[in-house]
Amino acid sequence: MIAGWACATCGQSVDVATPSPWRCPNSTSTDRAHVLRLVSTTRPPPALTTETNPFVWAAPSMAWHAFARSHGLTAEACTALARDLDSRIAEVDGTGFRVTPLHRAGALSDQLGFDQSGGVWIKDETGNVSGSHKARHLMSILLHLEICNLLGLIPPSPRPRLAIASCGNAALAAATLAAAARWPLDVFVPPSANAHVVNLLKRLAATVVLCPRRSDDQAGDPCLHRFREQIAQGSIPFGVQGPENALALDGGRTIGWEVAAQAANIGLDRVYVQVGGGALVTGMGDGLIEGLGDAAPKVMAVQTAGCAPLDRAWRAAVALGIERAPHHWDACMWPWEVEPASAARGILDDETYDWVGAVDVMARTGGGPVVSPESDVLSANTLVTVHTSIDADHTGTAGLAGLLTQRTAVDDDERILLVLSGIRRTAVP
């Protein structure tokens, strides 16, 4: 059963039946150091079935489904809603949600010097909705919103606007889902945002808001500052930061559950996960632990030398005590002091917003953070391009950079998991 959420910082509980359970009730404009973590005794889906949509296959283990059931919707009604929404997404994107493939990358494993009993297994998210894993996080939010709409818990006209602070894959995922469900969306982007991405956002009917740094801004991402101002005016947080919308972490668990089912007999040793805001490593890590228990691989959280706030948060958390760290947020996480820089632009978040969950899954699996030099970030993308058929961008291949950084400390028979997520977007608008 899913009871709801509890804040890792202050302990505040939020019942699963609560409409719009985005943030801890004690989170304010001057105290953002709160994040809701799911409280659940529900077992994950035990095995993959003929069902190919993870939001149908895994629905009984998810918060959006528990919310619907708490308000009297039947399991059949939940399935019908998920299928209908997925079909509308497919009309916009050309594909709906599907369980993504996991396979051993033989040529890449050989190139990296692994023997035949070890190697690299790739979870390929580039064929997912909008070309990355980001839509998984947002689908949980959108399903909750659609249920609220069905139950009359949200004004039908005009609909509240959705908002996201992103200039990459998360923004495109948000715009795709919003277009499919006909929700108005504001996307807050920096002036340096990729012109092709901005053009795609506009084609999807999203309103793009440029957010230059202001002299009176506090430290941190100006896009997030403008996003939060919009939320304060009544918009709905439709992003992938857990402290802004806890439901985003619920959707991320589907990746871990899929891997747990697909790799149950493989015996994975480590997973190297690229980390920006931290929702992927948190959601996937939770899913792996729930699905594999003590057999879950070590979770290695990868950031670049050009922006690595999670590494220092980990060291501070270890010094404080992992369980005590969420109560000392400011001592663990603060914005990166210099302008972030890397070819892996999608993980250059000024803060690792979901550092609490990231630290938790690393600690529970015996993993830790990895800070990769830019040379490894570049080499990782080249290796994937040459030795696989997957055309992912530098952000999507940054997990491999972490493996390159630690390769000499990894045995040749170890079994490594990577998530490749984020198709390369090179077209000129």
Give a structural overview:
With 429 residues, the chain is an alpha/beta fold. The chain is 39% helix and 14% strand. It is built from 15 helices and 13 strands. Strands 4-5-13-10-11-12 form a six-stranded mixed β-sheet. The termini are far apart.
Question: Outline of this structure?
Answer:
The chain is an alpha/beta fold. It has helices spanning 54-57, 63-70, 75-93, 106-111, 134-151, 169-181, 195-203, 222-232, 247-262, 279-292, 309-320, 329-332, 355-365, 374-387, 398-406; strands at 2-7, 13-15, 36-40, 102-104, 119-124, 162-165, 185-189, 207-210, 236-237, 270-274, 298-304, 368-372, 415-420. Helix 10 (279-292) links the parallel strand 10 and strand 11.
Keywords for this entry:
429 residues, alpha/beta, four-stranded parallel beta sheet, 15 helices, 13 strands, 14% strand, globular
